[in-house]
Hints:
By secondary structure, this protein is α+β, with helices and mostly antiparallel strands. α14 packs across α19.
Amino acid sequence: MTGLKPLHWRVLAELADGLPQHVSQLARMADMKPQQLNGFWQQMPAHIRGLLRQHDGYWRLVRPLAVFDAEGLRELGERSGFQTALKHECASSNDEILELARISPDKVHKALCVAHLQSKGRGRQGRKWSHRLGECLMFSFGWVFDRPQYELGSLSPVAAVACRRALSRLGLETQIKWPNDLVVGRDKLGGILIETVRTGGKTVAIIGIGINFVLPKEVENAASVQSLFQTASRRGNADAAVLLETLLAELDSVLVQYARAGFAPFVAEYQAANRDHGKAVLLLRDGETVFEGTVKGVDGQGVLHLETAEGEQTVVSGEISLRPDDRPVSVSKRREPERLLLLDGGNSRLKWAWVENGAFATVGSAPYRDLSPLGAEWAEKADERVRIVGCAVCGELKKAQVQEQIARPIEWLPSAHQALGIRNHYRRPEEHGADRWFNALGSRRFSRNACVVVSCGTAVTVDALTGDGHYLGGTIMPGFHLMKESLAVRTANLNRPAGKRYPFPTTTSNAIASGMMDAVCGSIMMMHGRLKEKIGAGKPVDVVMTGGGAAKVAEALPPAFLAENTVRVADNLVIHGLLNLIAAEGGEDEHI
């Protein structure tokens, strides 16, 4: 998968704790001269290369990674009685233990396999576990029970209890989403996959655990051990070896007790940690809702009890997925649910989304010169229950064009002094672009931290939002088309075809393309630096980007910046903000 050689893994493991290492020591480990190390390092994966910092003959990584050396892992495992194997690259750590169970069932109890990369890593219901090298702590181990498989239905929730205890010992507060996901609010920190085989009159359980050590760049709604340490302003005990050793110690203790007494001693602890206890949820199979109701709790077998309109239902894990029922009250509680048509009136295009049961059903867009697609959808989909809510910066003429397509009043919402726990510090909110305000409200679906909210459209806006809900304002600059148009009209000899971005462009077209992108990236990085300075060192600042040019801008940001920060591209951020606000209004109505 990576092509890394044993010496690469050895050097990477030496640097993985984030502490400085002298180049002479690293060169000896790599069996080369110190001046050869830079070329050696260039063979590392790109996301790893960008983490390196060099100073006065020392190398260090800007953040720890979940990478181990075999000898250190062996010693770590022995302290809790585990026999360890380290796989730099494999199909699946669960498969490694399953194979051992088939070949040597007498050796599988507390046999541990730690994997750096898995080509076929999986979670519940066959879902793929996405990760990059060093970002995720992944391990599997065997545990032999003198019980048949059907009596181990509560094994996955008890494993989640053990993992949560371990994280709590390190000062990290997490919750459990039934049956066994480790979560922080809506963000997933880790998952557990348990597979069992019957051999020699005993049941071998293969317990696979994956925990995000570093925030994964490609995964939405994720949490990580490192980001939790930063949020808690903690510095110690953040390396992967300490995390793994703490997990193994708690798993060993809990599973010994579970083998003797079952799940009953852990039920109360599980209930207290269950994120959705007493809350409305949806239970889905293959994407279709099969139950909706309120979580009452779990029993001694780990079975979920759900209070529904038809009475109490019991649900075993199996192929069922649980989701919080965060539909607006007006949608989920009325006999005739309200439907929504949400509008984002930008400068050059109109975007819209039909919302059914609190979720996007269809999304569309069109230029103002031809809004007939919206009119056609309205004729097809509209009924008396549709509520139309929009945000517009396009001006009154274009708003009137939108109204012509829809035979119903439109609620155009402006910026406000505050909403959803966010205070607007704009001096005159009535002058504040509504799109910037609703982008900020929508960003809360993608980041719980302080964040820079970027919209790349006709204009580029770069706004700052603190983690505790203060919208501080931001900047506006011309978008790519306006920049190029300005150069073409106002400057001689610069009306050139579109070029490409290069680090050192050597044609005028490429110089223009590169300059425009550098201007946008520079603006984002400057705002990021200001916000980081304001909220204090050690606290993360994310970047949430939207608009037609967002993906290209995200790709153009420097690798070191991308390695050190979370950058997410989110389509239709304004519409997410509108939906968030409407959902909150529904909750307030119910409370009153």
